[in-house]
Structure formats: structure tokens, C-alpha cells
Design brief:
The complex is a heterodimer of chains A (144) and B (321). Chain A is α/β, with parallel strands linked by helices. Chain A is built from 5 helices and 6 strands; from the N terminus they run E-E-H-E-E-H-E-H-E-H-H. In chain A, strands 1, 2, 3, 4, 5 and 6 form a 6-stranded mixed sheet that branches. With 321 residues, chain B is α/β, with parallel strands linked by helices. The chains are: A alpha/beta (144), B alpha/beta (321).
């Protein structure tokens, strides 16, 4: 369920939870945050990522962020993505963003995050970028 | 009484100028766009340029470093920063008043980095006896910084040879001061060596000058402080030097902000008009115009209340409040 629009930036609003679903395909984890990423939900996004960022390293898991269910991301949410990407790169891992909604794609372009992250059209395309094993597992699971 | 804000210098870090290749490209673009038009007088050509060519082709955002004038209709002048733009301002005053009319200038310094003080040795009114210049700031070494840049071997005219009466006034952040009809409050900002924003209030209208400041929206105290400082402003002049991606990665802790953060902060603070300022010197006119368009779009995307007006500063821009 998509949250109703709220101010993207708050001074000290209550933190709201953000559901981040997980799916494993071979050696890749696909994380799917759901909803609006703003100041009130960023902690939820961070918690959802943190559990997997540490294992995203050379020889470890690959990470795909499925953004198909994110309809807005603020600067603070983007910063969380940047910190995750930085750690993953330092660990020799790889992260790809998939299935950006048109408005979120615009935000990536306006903020130049499209130059930082590899952004592709679908989860399958992302898995193809990071791991043949993961792609095979995905195709097997989805009968493609 | 109308208030006016005039931008005499808008570039960050170092002054820049249009190069030959850029002028050639603008001319080529204009000639192609004008093909088939009957523009056989200067008047027709100027009108067509103003109405049909985009700003990035027909003009330039300019290259002087920071200097902004606040005009409340008083005889005494109020400025923010002494970047290279103050040279053009000084020449404007000379041309308008002649060199012999005594003038009073009040200057509020955001900080003392070179791009914000470099115009002072070229500020012609500083050489004229009878003029009075009061320079305000929160840095205790304000006077030292301005004197030092005129010491040998950096400049041929020592500070003590300037003919105007020059005073330095140290301000306390958070305290309100009455200067030339304005109520002025300074706020500490995140920047190497510290910088200070200024909130100017006059006749119920509010102007915030916040340049060379890295606004961190992930830090609640910082958000609260900035939102309070910007609250209900009619105009916020905002350091939008970097893209958000640069500001939170390779250029984190470099002391500057982005257009995206400017929009979010101004929306939170119920600001009416945001002016993008302190342009990255590597950006040409086309790139700055693109950033402006993108900022307008981001404001649409992130808007949850009243629309925020957004302008991009250029040398020569005048805004009436």
C-alpha cells in the first residue's frame, strides 16, 4: 500500500516503518522497499538495507534494489542509498537498482544518482548484470 | 515601500568568464534559430532575442563571485559579501552618483574565503575620502583577512592607503541587530572555517542569505535550525553549487549544498521564493539552465503545500519584493 503524500521533509516527525521485502535468487538478494522514502521512513529503509549490505562483498552476495514499489524518494533517502553503495564498493561487491518508477527515475536524474548507480529496467535485467547464477535461478522461479 | 535584491556576483569559488568558443556557439545557435525571420533592425532583433531565445543562449549567468545588494530605498547601501561582483556594484554607484558624493555602505560577510573578499581591492568607493564602509561579520579575524589580501606582494595598494573610512563590526550569531533599516540576525553554518547566514527583516518581509553552507537534512538538529532560520522567508538565496549525488559522496564535507536540498528545506520552512546561487564554476550556461529546469521539476514532484517559486541567480538579476 502506498502512503498518502506527506511533507517530504519534517523537522522531528515520528519515524514510520517501511517494509522491505527480500527474495533470494542464487547468489543475489533482491530487496523491494515499498512506499514513499522520506525523512519519516528512511530509518526503515536503512534497517532493511543494513542487514544485507555487509554480506554484499567480493565473492559474496550481489544486491538488487527493486524500486518498482517506491513512488518517491527524498534527499535523505538517497543519502542512505549512497552510504550503502559506498560500503558495498569498498567491499568489492556490486549493487544495481531496478525498475524505477518514472517519477523516481526523474529524481535520480535530477540528483545525478543515475550517474552513481547502475539503473536498469527490470529485476531480471539487474540479475543478468550481477550474476548468471542468479539470473538462472530467477528464470527457473518465474518460468522464463 | 518596495524592496529590491540585486545580484552583482553569483558564481562560486572563483570568477569565470565566457570563452570564445561559448560565444561562438551562442551566435551559431541564434543564427540558426533566426533563419527565415525578418530581423532587419536592432529593435526587432533584440525583441526576438528576448522572447524567443532561451536565457542560456541569449544571456549568460555570469561569472563574478558573491556579492548581493539589498535595497530598501535608503540612501545607505547594504551588501552581502565582497566577491568580485562588488567591483561592478562600485562602478554602478560611481556612474549613478559621481565619485564625489559621500556614500555609506554596510557589508555583511558570510565568511572570509578568498572568493568572498577578493572584490574589495577593486571596490572604487573604498578609495574615496568621505565614503564610509562598515563591514560586519562573525569571524573575529574579519579585519585581518581584508588587510592581508592587500599586503605585499599580493596587491600594490596597502589597506591603509584606502581613502574611505572603514570600520569592522563583529556580530554575535543569534542576536538581532538594527542596521540601515534592516533587522539582521546571523546564524552559524557548516563550512570550512565556518560561515554565517543572514536573515534580514524589514517591513514584514524576510530575506535569507545562506551561501557556502552544507545543509545536512539527515541531522535533525541541523534541519530544525535551518528551518527556523528560513521560516516564512519571502526570499532565500541558497548555495546550490553541487548536485545532491556529489554533495553526499565525493564532495561531502566540502561545505556546499544542492538544489534538491534547497527545495526540500524551503518547502519545509514555508519559503516563498528560492534563488539558486553560488554556481559551480565548471558549469556553463546551458548546464546552469538545465539545473534550473530540473529544480523546477523537483519542486513539482516534492510539493505538498503551496508552490515554491524558484529562480536562478545571474549577475545583474534584480528581484522586487
Amino acid at each position: 500500500m502506498i502512503d498518502a503524500p506527506q511533507a517530504c521533509l519534517t523537522v522531528r516527525g515520528p519515524s514510520r516503518s517501511m517494509h522491505v521485502s527480500q527474495e533470494r535468487y542464487g547468489d543475489a538478494m533482491v530487496l523491494t522497499p515499498i512506499g514513499r522514502v522520506d525523512n519519516s521512513t528512511t530509518d526503515g529503509l536503512k534497517s532493511g538495507l543494513d542487514a544485507y549490505v555487509a554480506s554484499c562483498r567480493a565473492g559474496g552476495d550481489r544486491l538488487v534494489l527493486d524500486f518498482s514499489k517506491v513512488d518517491y524518494i527524498s534527499s535523505v533517502g538517497l543519502r542512505v542509498l549512497m552510504l550503502a553503495a559506498k560500503q558495498i564498493r569498498e567491499q568489492g561487491g556490486s549493487i544495481v537498482v531496478a525498475a524505477l518508477q518514472p517519477v523516481v527515475r526523474e529524481i535520480f536524474e535530477i540528483s545525478r544518482f543515475n550517474l552513481v548507480f547502475q539503473c536498469v529496467g527490470s529485476v531480471r535485467e539487474a540479475l543478468a548484470k550481477v550474476s548468471p547464477t542468479a539470473l538462472a535461478a530467477y528464470d527457473s522461479a518465474h518460468g522464463t | 515601500m518596495a524592496l529590491w535584491v540585486t545580484f552583482w556576483g553569483t558564481r562560486g569559488s572563483i570568477p569565470v568568464s565566457l570563452d570564445s568558443a561559448s560565444i561562438r556557439d551562442k551566435l551559431a545557435h541564434a543564427i540558426v534559430a533566426a533563419s527565415g525571420k525578418r530581423l532587419d533592425t536592432q529593435e526587432k532583433a533584440r525583441a526576438w532575442v528576448d522572447s524567443e531565445l532561451g536565457f542560456a543562449v541569449s544571456h549568460t549567468f555570469g561569472g563574478n563571485s558573491a556579492c548581493v545588494q539589498l535595497d530598501g530605498g535608503d540612501a545607505e547601501h547594504v551588501l552581502c559579501d565582497l566577491g568580485s561582483g562588488v567591483r561592478a556594484f562600485g562602478n554602478h554607484v560611481f556612474n549613478r552618483d559621481g565619485p564625489s558624493k559621500p556614500n555609506v555602505f554596510h557589508v555583511f560577510q558570510s565568511h572570509l574565503h578568498w572568493d568572498h573578499i577578493m572584490g574589495f581591492p577593486f571596490f572604487a568607493p573604498a578609495y574615496v575620502p568621505g565614503n564610509r564602509i562598515r563591514i560586519y561579520g562573525c569571524h573575529t579575524n574579519l579585519e585581518e583577512a581584508l588587510r592581508r589580501q592587500q599586503d605585499p606582494p599580493s596587491f600594490p595598494v596597502p589597506f591603509d592607503r584606502l581613502g574611505a573610512s572603514i570600520e569592522f563590526v563583529t556580530l554575535q550569531p543569534g542576536r538581532s541587530y538594527e542596521v540601515a533599516g534592516w533587522s539582521v540576525t546571523a546564524k552559524l553554518q557548516s563550512h570550512s572555517g565556518d560561515s554565517y547566514g543572514y536573515r534580514f527583516v524589514r517591513d514584514g518581509r524576510i530575506i535569507v542569505y545562506s551561501t557556502d553552507s552544507e545543509h545536512r537534512l539527515d541531522v535533525p538538529d541541523a534541519v530544525e535550525g535551518a528551518a527556523t532560520f528560513f521560516a516564512d522567508a519571502d526570499l532565500v538565496i541558497f548555495d546550490a553549487m553541487y548536485s545532491l549525488a556529489d554533495a553526499v559522496s565525493v564532495k561531502e564535507d566540502w561545505g556546499h549544498s544542492s538544489n534538491v536540498v534547497g527545495v526540500e528545506l524551503c518547502q519545509l520552512a514555508n519559503v516563498k521564493h528560492l534563488v539558486l546561487f553560488h554556481h559551480e564554476p565548471a558549469n556553463n550556461d546551458e548546464r546552469i539552465a538545465q539545473i534550473w529546469r530540473e529544480t523546477l521539476r523537483y519542486e513539482e514532484i516534492s510539493r505538498t503545500g503551496e508552490p515554491l517559486r524558484i529562480s536562478v541567480a545571474y549577475d545583474g538579476l534584480e528581484i522586487e519584493l
